[in-house]
Amino acid sequence: MNIDIEDISKDFGKTVALHPVSLAIPSGTLVALLGPSGSGKTTLLRILGGLECPNAGRVLFDGQDATHLTVQDRRAGFVFQSYALFRHMTVFDNIAYGLRARPRKTRPQAAEIARRVTKLLELIKLPDIGARYPSQLSGGQRQRVALARALAIEPRMLLLDEPFGALDAKVRKELRQGLRDIHDTTGLTSVFVTHDQEEAMALADLVVVMSMGRIEQVGKPDDIRARPKTDFVREFLSA
Amino acid sequence: MTETLTLPKPRAFRPATTEPVLVKWALIALVLAILTVLLFAPLIAVFEEALRRGAAFALASLSEPDAQSAIRLTLLVAAMTVPLNAAFGIAAAWAVTKFDWRGKAWVITLIDLPFSVSPVVAGLLFVLMFGSNSALGVWLVANGYPIVFAVPGIVLATLFITFPFVARELIPIMLEQGRSEEEAALTLGASGWRTFLTVTLPNIRWALLYGVLLCNARAMGEFGAVAVVSGKIRGQTTTMPLMIEMFYNEYLSVAAFTMAAVLALLAFVTLALKSALEWRYADQLAATHRH
Q1: Banded pLDDT at B291 (limits 50, 70, 90)
Q2: Residue in chain A nearest B205 by alpha carbon
Q3: Do B243 and B169 share a structural domain?
Q4: CA atoms of B73 and B158, how far apart (whole Å)
Q5: Residue B102: what are its φ and ψ, rounded to 5°?
Q6: Quick check: A66 and A76 in contact, CB under 8 A?
Q7: Which of B9, B139, B167, B182 is deepest in the core (most CB within 10 A)?
């Protein structure tokens, strides 16, 4: 799905989170929103997911205005920074949540839900953990369960807030490839937020460098590295 | 001249986190002594006094119409205030922890008001508002809805006094849990109501249970505020705590202590209920608690 961001701005009281920003994301790309904390990248992601409402501007999904679409209607698979797994539910119930929340008419049968959850557990390469609770999982396993839960609703796009932020370096590298593989098999337009430039460069098709609520540069990893457009980008990349 | 280095004499090894045995036992003894003097001894005295003339006599004092009516009224007041304050408490905690708005800090302080105001003052406030010296009170009595010196006043006063219990239990835990699980449920397509029922409520159920039990205990035991608004009409607006005082003042000490014993037993029942639930769901508690 194509995502178009047109002059989106957002402030929280006196602090401006986003100056008007515009960005076109072609269907099927894996995009990194890269920037230091406070650059507005998470706010932009949350606006895409419908968790935050912009003060001005429009968001278009496949050319259609989605600015005022509710969170539920957006069908955006969202992976939260600390994963936000439902702690009182098993992994199976976590992944099945979105399917069970559907209105009766479109809700799959219990057997069909079980089949899909099993398939998703295989996709994240954790077929045997359905009966466990989130507190019994490692950080890397939690992240993958969060991903499976987001994919269960057959989302139109995948939005990930610092998906590797809480993991140690080794697991981070493994899961990076995992996300790339899942992106390539599903073909979903995916946007992830990171402050780690190496991660953004290694993983994304398109990198969006942000600072102080503005987009500094948009481009392929190699282009940005070869031709930083602003002083900020040059300094941020050399840090 | 060379200084001689004297090493301290080696002492028996003791892990850094444990206290000497003497300190440990002294602390345990102190706690037990306090519990005995302040809790067990008075409790035993209540039951002893109640049963001084035998169980039959004690039970007979309970079967008097006034005593029966007091028990019924106390249970009725608790049955009305506890569900209402559970709902108010959840709503207040939700509003305070899941949204940002102006005046939030002020509302958090207001929630605590019933704790800081003397119950007698609270009772007087209701008398002033709904009593015969206010236009509203006169109108209410004229139209057949008396509030002061009637059951509605007792319910109102008890509601006021027990308001903070549920909210106070819920606010810290809801703050700690944050909003992300609710947000996750919304992105997965759940409605607000479904999110509340399937995500928020299960996450707060233990805190809610404690809040409800505390609220219930106080609703049944409240004296000051209820004493002011009830008018202490025997058989009509007299709750168990008020009845105990009346019996005691009339030198009916067996009746007074029997009623007190019943009130204490009701507290035991709630405690036992809580322990039973904790025991029954121990595995769930262990699995879902982060701490």
Answers
A1: very low
A2: A88
A3: yes
A4: 12
A5: -65, 145
A6: no
A7: B167
Q: Which pLDDT does position B2 carry in this prediction? A: 57
A61: its two tokens: 């999904």
Q: Which two tokens stand for residue B34?
A: 């306090």
User: What domains are defined for chain A?
Assistant: 3-75+155-238 (3.40.50.300), 88-153 (no CATH)
pLDDT band at B136 (very low <50, low <70, confident <90, very high): confident
User: What's the token pair of residue B143?
Assistant: 């139209």
In which residue are the tokens 């304050």 written? B85
Please name which of B49, B171, B44, B179 lies closest in space to residue B105, comparing C-alpha atoms: B171
Q: Give the domain extent around B195.
A: 54-288
What percent of chain B is modeled with pLDDT above 70?
92
User: Which residues are CB-contacts of A238 (< 8 A; sequence separation ≥ 6)?
Assistant: none
The answer as to whether B83 is a domain residue is yes
pTM value?
Answer: 0.82
Subunit contact B185:A101, Cβ cutoff 8 A: yes
For B224-261, the pLDDT digits (tens) are 999 999 988 888 899 999 999 999 999 998 999 999 99
Q: Report whether A221 contacts A200 (CB < 8 A).
A: yes
What the block records as the tokens of A103 is 């209105």
pLDDT > 80? residue B153:
yes
A174-216 residue pLDDT tens = 889 889 999 999 999 999 999 999 999 999 999 999 999 999 9
- The pLDDT assigned to B267 comes to 85
The Cα A56–Cα A18 span in angstroms is: 10
Residue B90 belongs to a domain = yes
Q: How far, in Å, CA of B68 to CA of B74, rounded?
A: 10
Q: Mark out chain B residues that contact chain A at CB-CB < 8 A.
A: 180-181, 183-191, 194, 198-199, 202-203, 284, 287-290
Instruction: Collect the ranges in chain A with pLDDT lower than 70.
Output: none
Instruction: Report yes or no: B184 and A80 within 8 Å, Cβ to Cβ.
Output: yes
Query: Which chain B residues are closer than 8 Å to A85 by Cβ?
Result: 181, 184
Residues across chain B:
291
- Which tokens sit at A90? 């098993």
